[in-house]
Automatic annotation (TrEMBL):
Gene: Exoc6b
Protein name: EXC6B protein
Source organism: Eudromia elegans (Elegant crested-tinamou)
One Pfam family hit: EXOC6_Sec15_N
This protein's GO CC annotations: exocyst; plasma membrane
Keyword tRNA-binding part of the UniProt annotation: no
InterPro entries: EXOC6/Sec15, EXOC6/Sec15_C, EXOC6/Sec15_C_dom1, EXOC6_Sec15_N, EXOC6PINT-1/Sec15/Tip20_C_dom2
Domain of life: Eukaryota
Length: 689
């Protein structure tokens, strides 16, 4: 800085040049000292360059050879690389297929199950497919298609299983008649078995009881897996011989469609829908079953088919109750039974009222009892049916009374109203066997001889006993006490005597053409029938084992029937006699202006007295032993005689006092007096006091 600031620039440059020159001289000195070594180095370098060029050529040559030789290796390496890539891809593909194949297999299995209608297994397969297999491969497109199809498949399974259920319900409806028939046969067998056991308590073997049979059949059905692939419907059963055991009602039915459908709907979470549908359909079927055919009352088969269908319906429902958990419950079943009971009883009341044949009513009663016993065996209350049978009993009594009315009418119409003649001991014993009659005097008499009564007495007595047997038949199996049975029989018998037989007797007595001889025989007959009432009492006591002394026992008051009939016959005798007297008196032809009387009684009066005497002679044939003869015949004869005489006296007085008779002569009065004296004289000589 001082150089530039001062004026010494030139001087400085000089000094600097001098300095450079000094350095150059030093450099030159040094170079001169090492020059040989430099030359040697250059020479060496030139040698190295030649060797380096050689090496370069060798390396280039070697590289070329290496490149030529390595081409094949590179190709092989490229191929190896591609193979490795393919191998890796194949391995990945196998892994993915390993995941996908079970899905496809399961889907194929599902389709196969659907095709073969194995819906419950198909549903299980669907569950596995949806929850186990598809989540592992859910990113594949075909899986998404499957997932979209699953709801449709579920719906298809629901529809198909419901279709099977509908077929089952339709089949059950058609075959409930057969199921009920089988169940009632079982109940009948059980009842017969119970009767045998009650008669022979020691017998403990034999056929199984109904409960055991039901239990075993229940077990069999419970062991039937819902996976069962059999078709729905009723199994065919050939008609068994009487000696063969009747199959259990449940053995006739394959319930697997119900179980399958129930399981399917339960798995699908729609159990409540299924239960409601099943109950609704069965209610509809119940209403159809409970609708009786219009001509049911015409034959017993009509009633039997009606009962079979009802029993079949409730046997199925009872079985469903015990083999499914809640598909039907006791409350639902009780409600159905209440409805069935009321409709059945109403139908029976209506149709049985049309029935006029006591045989059909009795068969109907036996059928109703079997119907009640069958359903009682399945736990249904049947008291109302037995109460209704008591109403049918009254109707049965009415039909019996109508039938016996015709029987009595035929007996009375066909009777000859003359004592029964017997020619030998065999005929005598036959009549005594039919009618309780004992008469020591008659027994001592030689053959031929006559019973005092006509044929209608033993016939009527036998028919009364037949009526009692018919009443007894109806009371069997009604679970009534012997006192109730006795009371029923006595009341019905009283109605038979006081109404039916009484009307028949009254009709015979009141007939226009009935003769005095017939009326007298009716009096004799009714006297003997009246005496037989005590034997009827004994007969009823023997068959019911209820002593007449028992409290509240109804007494037979049939004696009044025969007394009333006898009184009616007596009255008819008196009336007939009076009418005959009137007819004779109408023939009287008095000449009230006659001067002289006739020499004898008037002709009409002679004929009249002859008629009366012959008529009163009939009364000597009135019944029985001496005492009965004197009292019975005497009373009727005396009363008839008094009635006839009184009526004749009144009629004669009427002749005198007629308005047309204005004046009388003494001769006419003397003739009239002659007639009255004739009456007095002849009527005193009668064959009774």
């Amino acid at each position: 800085r001082s150089v530039y600031d001062g004026e010494e620039h030139g001087r400085f440059m000089e000094k600097l040049e001098a300095r450079i020159r000094n350095h150059d001289r030093e450099i030159e000195k040094m170079c001169n000292f090492h020059y040989q070594g430099f030359v040697d180095s250059i020479t060496e370098l030139l040698k190295v360059r030649g060797e380096a060029q050689k090496l370069k050529n060798q390396v280039t040559d070697t590289n070329r050879k290496l490149q030529n030789e390595g081409k094949e290796l590179m190709i092989a390496m490229e191929e190896l690389k591609q193979c490795r890539l393919q191998q890796r891809n194949i391995s990945a593909t196998v892994d993915k297929l390993t995941l996908c194949l079970p899905v496809l297999e399961m889907y194929s299995k599902l389709r196969e199950q659907m095709k073969s209608k194995r819906h419950y297994p198909a549903l299980k397969t669907l569950e596995h497919l949806e929850h186990t297999y598809l989540p592992q491969v859910s990113h594949y497109r075909f899986c998404k298609v499957m997932l979209d199809n699953i709801p449709k498949l579920r719906e298809e399974i629901k529809e198909v299983s419901m279709s099977d259920l509908k077929d089952f319900l339709e089949s059950i409806r058609k075959h409930s008649d057969k199921i009920g028939e089988t169940a009632m046969k079982q109940a009948q067998q059980q009842r017969n078995l119970d009767n045998i056991v009650s008669q022979h308590p020691r017998i403990s073997g034999g056929k199984r009881s109904k409960k055991e049979a039901c239990a075993s059949s229940d077990l069999e059905v419970k062991n039937t897996s819902p996976m069962s692939e059999q078709d729905s419907g009723i199994l065919d059963v050939e008609d068994e011989d009487e000696d063969e055991e009747v199959p259990g009602a449940q053995d006739l039915v394959d319930f697997s469609p119900v179980y399958r459908c129930l399981h399917i709907y339960s798995v699908l979470g729609a159990r409540e829908t299924f239960e409601n549908y099943y109950r609704k359909q069965r209610r509809k079927q119940a209403r159809l079953v409970l609708q009786p055919p219009s001509n049911m009352h015409e034959t017993l088969d009509g009633y039997r088919k009606y009962f079979n269908q009802i029993v079949g319906f409730f046997v199925v429902e009872d079985h469903i109750l015990h083999t499914t958990q809640g598909l039907v419950n006791r409350a639902y079943l009780d409600e159905l039974w209440e409805m069935a009971l009321s409709k059945t009883i109403a139908a029976l009341r209506t149709h049985s009222s049309y029935c006029s044949d006591p045989g059909l009513v009795l068969d109907l009663k036996n059928l109703i009892v079997l119907f009640a016993d069958t359903l009682q065996g399945y736990g249904f209350p049947v008291n109302q049916l037995f109460d209704m049978l008591l109403e049918v009993r009254d109707q049965y009594s009415e039909t019996l009374l109508k039938k016996w009315s015709g029987v009595f009418r035929n007996i009375l119409d066909s009777d000859n109203y003359s004592p029964i003649p017997v020619t030998n001991e065999e005929v005598y014993q036959k009549v005594v066997g039919q009618f309780p009659f004992q008469d020591a005097e008659l027994e001592k008499q030689p053959f031929p001889k006559k019973f005092p009564f006509s044929e209608f007495v033993p016939k009527v007595y036998s028919q009364i006993k037949e009526f009692i047997y018919a009443c007894l038949k109806f009371s069997e199996d009604l679970h009534l006490s012997s006192t109730e049975v006795d009371d029923m029989i006595r009341k019905s018998t009283n109605l038979l005597l006081t109404r039916t037989l009484s009307n028949a007797l009254q009709n015979v007595i009141k007939r226009r053409n009935v003769g005095l001889t017939e009326l007298v025989q009716i009096i004799i007959n009714t006297t003997h029938l009246e005496k037989s009432c005590k034997f009827l009492e004994e007969f009823i006591t023997n068959i019911t084992n209820v002593l007449p002394e028992t409290v509240h026992t109804t007494k037979l008051y049939g004696t009044t029937t025969f007394k009333d009939a006898r009184h009616a016959a007596e009255e008819e005798i008196y009336t007939n006699l009076n009418q005959k007297i009137d007819q004779f008196v109408q023939l009287a032809d008095y000449d009230w202006m006659a001067v002289e009387p006739g020499s004898r009684a008037s002709d009409y009066l002679v004929d009249l007295i002859g008629f009366l005497r012959s008529t009163f002679a009939v009364f000597t044939h009135l019944p029985g032993d001496a005492d009965a003869h004197s009292t019975m015949s005497g009373k009727v004869a005396q009363t008839a005689c008094m009635s006839a005489c009184k009526h004749l006296a009144t009629s004669l007085m009427q002749l005198l006092l007629e308005a047309e008779v204005r004046q009388l002569t003494l001769g006419a009065l003397q003739q009239f007096n002659l007639d009255v004296e004739e009456c007095e004289r002849k009527m005193q000589n009668l064959p009774f006091p």
